[in-house]
Design a protein that fits this description.
This protein is α/β, with parallel strands linked by helices and about 280 residues long. About 40% of the residues lie in helices and about 15% in strands. The chain has an eight-stranded parallel barrel with strand order 1-2-3-4-5-6-7-10. A two-stranded antiparallel ribbon has the order 8-9.
Length: about 280
């Protein structure tokens, strides 16, 4: 059967105000990008005012809709297995207060934009509830979930830095109905956490957003993540993953993510749009 999910992509807030980036986005919109997950990092705080938001809306002018916000947080941030657990997300206690405040600003922006999903990497969540800091992290997430609920938002965990079982345990232990999953199948492989096809069964109806990204498992010294690849050229089994996800009833957007810059990114996004359309027929 043919599915009606919208094909989208991830764009940073500040990229809307750089000529080189908007030229590439024009090409991607013309190729079929319909929705955008807007990533908002603290470096782009100057663009969160009403005037810049109105400028961004005028640029899109009905060609694509912003349907989700991905909230970033201040550095340090080291994306590996060695320093990642002590620098990423809300897990490191020394950065937590500041990052919660930053995520709440992203929630305010999402509310202003009229979207209903805020996603982020929470970090390397402890695998076992008996680990130090687990309960404090649960309480922090509950606070953010309540803040989002007041703005009609779901607070979504981007997958990858924890196993699916660990993530669902945190959602259960937090006990908030508006906690969801932003499923990035490549991250489950890049971090060596799970087979994304099987993970669909564990996340179930908590899946609120999906990144279309591919990659390989870690290797070498196993201190670094696996390697991101063009969709269809990595270890995510998309011909099985995507039909299973859609047949389960996922009706949300499919946000293409290609973590490189320049014209090669544009070429790969356009290639991925064609790949997805073939799988969704």
């Amino acid at each position: 059967m043919a599915y009606q999910n919208k094909i989208g992509m991830i764009r940073s807030l500040d990229s809307f105000f750089r000529d080189s980036e908007t030229k590439r986005l024009d090409q991607m919109l013309n190729a079929g990008v319909e929705t955008i997950q807007l990533s908002v990092w603290p470096r782009a705080a100057q663009y969160m005012d009403d005037a810049h938001i109105d400028e961004m809306k005028r640029y899109l002018n009905g060609r694509a809709r912003i349907t989700s916000v991905w909230g970033g947080w201040s550095e340090p941030a080291v994306w590996d297995f060695w320093k990642g657990p002590s620098t990423l997300g809300l897990v490191p206690a020394q950065y937590r207060v500041q990052r919660v405040a930053e995520l709440k600003k992203s929630a305010d922006l999402a509310y202003k934009l009229g979207v209903h999903d805020l996603a982020t990497h929470v970090g390397f969540i402890p695998e076992q509830p008996c680990y130090d800091g687990y309960q404090e992290l649960v309480e922090t997430i509950a606070d953010l979930a309540d803040y989002c609920a007041e703005r009609d938002l779901s607070f979504n965990f981007e997958t990858g830095q924890e196993t699916p079982v660990t993530l669902m345990r945190v959602i259960h232990d937090t006990g908030k109905k508006n906690l969801g999953v932003n499923l990035d199948p490549a991250n489950l492989i890049l971090y060596g956490r799970a087979n994304p096809v099987d993970a669909i069964d564990i996340y179930g109806d908590r899946i609120r957003g999906v990144h279309i990204k591919d990659g390989t498992y870690p290797c070498g010294d196993f201190r670094n993540l696996g390697e991101e690849r063009v969709v269809g050229e990595g270890s995510v089994n998309f011909p099985v993953f995507l039909p299973k996800l859609l047949a389960q009833g996922y009706t949300g957007d499919l946000y293409i993510e290609r973590e490189i810059d320049g014209d090669e990114q544009m070429t790969d996004v356009i290639k991925t749009i064609s790949y997805l359309r073939d799988l969704m027929r």
